[in-house]
Amino acid sequence: MKNEEKILSIVNEKGYIMSKDLSKKNINAYYLSKLVKENKLVRVSRGYYVLPNGFPDNFYIILSKCKKAVFSHATALYLHNLSERCPLVYDITVPYGYGNCYKNSKNVNLHYQKLETMNVGIIEIDSPFGMKIKVYDTERTICDIIKNKNKMDIEIFSQALKKYANSSDKDLNKLMRYAKKLKIENKVREYMEVVL
Questions:
Q1: CB 69 within 8 A of CB 119
Q2: What is the pTM of this model?
C-alpha cells in the first residue's frame, strides 16, 4: 500500500488525521502536503486534516488556537449532557491576559479567570468527534453557571441544575470545595437547597 493510500485509509477510518499520526506510521509529511495539493485532503487547522466533504471537529479546532483555553459554561454543560442545546457560540475560559487569538472569532464567548483558580476542575474528555479536548468538570461548570447566572439563558440554567441534582454521578462535596475556592459558597449552597 502506498503512503497516500495509508493516509487516506486512516482518514476514512477515523474521519481525520493528525500530522503527528504520520510519524507513528513512518510516513513522511510530504505525502500529507501532496494530498492537500491534490484536493484529496483539507487542512482544517494546524496539524489536523479531513476529507474535502468531511466534518471537521469544531470543538478541537477552536480549542487548539490557545493552549490555556478550556471549554466552560454552556458549552461544558452540553459536553457533560446537562444541556441538549448544541453550541453555536462556544464558551471558553482563559486566564487574564490570554485569549488574543480569539479576538476576531464571532463564535467564541470568552470568560476570564484568575491564574490561581484557572486550573480548578479541568479534565480532558473526548469531543463528540473523538478528539481530546479540555473542559471543566461538571462541578466546576455548575459553579461557573451559578456565578454567571445573569449572563446565562434561564432555560439552559434551570435545566442544567435539575439534571445535575438528579444525577447519580454528582459530587456535592467536590461542588462545595470548588465553590469555596471560587468564593461563591453561599450562592451555590442556596441553589442546591432549592433543587435537591
A1: no
A2: 0.85
